[in-house]
Design a protein that fits this description.
Rossmann fold, 6 helices, binds zinc ion
Length: 233
């Protein structure tokens, strides 16, 4: 089968691994080309004054962690855009869309993975909207599939609302690559938390096992299908 081109669009460094790291590893093993775009810097949202000036070292360290994690997953390219963390609503939507469009034009992906529209985190919701705008169907598009992933410590933390709830209808059997995802997450030491936090290694493994049990396999990553084009193109 012809190798596929994959684009993962994430808000913060670690979302890509939490959301679909084991699926990314599987694509890489299958010789598909995996590209990752991370839009926000993922640091200053935790500060009082949200200034990046004093956090340059932390930013560099986080990018180093991200590079290491993504190389474990066999990612071909990793791009950071350093938009304001947890304040992506302060950036023009059009600018975010244009960043994603530029990557789509360059990478020409067959599959795009991104956030779910119902996440608690505002950047995640904005990234979902921007991806959907950037991926609007055009005759010249190569895109066949858009899948929304879940992020431990965001997707499940939203208050229940049936129209926004993450109700997975697409499961990737990742029994053979879950350990690679967990290994990649070890590189994101500053982002991971101790158990029983939802963003702990143990919780991420439990979620994958539980999603696997949904569909009768050892481990799975769950997605919500945004769009699928089948047949000739
Ligand atoms: Zn995030």
């Amino acid at each position: 089968m012809k190798p596929k081109r994959i684009l993962v669009v994430a808000a913060h460094p670690d979302d890509e691994v939490l959301g679909c790291g084991a699926t990314m590893a599987k694509h890489s093993i299958n010789r598909d080309e995996v590209h990752v775009v991370i839009l926000a810097e993922g640091i200053t949202g935790r500060d009082e004054n949200c200034s990046l000036r004093k956090r340059n070292d932390d930013l560099r360290r986080l990018k180093g962690s991200s590079t290491k994690a993504n190389s474990i997953l066999g990612v071909k390219s990793l791009n950071f855009h350093d938009l304001p963390d947890n304040r992506m609503d302060s950036v023009d939507m059009l600018m975010i869309v244009k960043i994603i469009e530029a990557h789509l034009k360059h990478i020409k992906p067959d599959i795009v993975y991104t956030h779910h529209f119902g996440d608690l985190n505002i950047d995640h919701r904005i990234v979902n909207s921007a991806v959907m705008v950037a991926c609007r169907p055009q005759p010249e598009n190569h895109l066949r599939e858009i899948l929304f992933f879940e992020v431990s410590s965001s997707t499940g933390w939203q208050a229940p609302d049936l129209s926004q709830a993450f109700t997975p209808n697409w499961f990737e059997d990742v029994s053979s690559t879950l350990s690679i995802k967990l290994n990649a997450l070890q590189s994101y030491k500053s982002e991971m938390r101790p158990w029983p936090h939802a963003r702990s290694i143990k919780a991420v493994e439990h979620l994958a096992r539980w999603r696997g049990a949904f569909v009768g396999v050892e481990a799975a990553e769950a997605f919500y299908l945004g769009r699928k084009l089948i047949g000739e193109k």
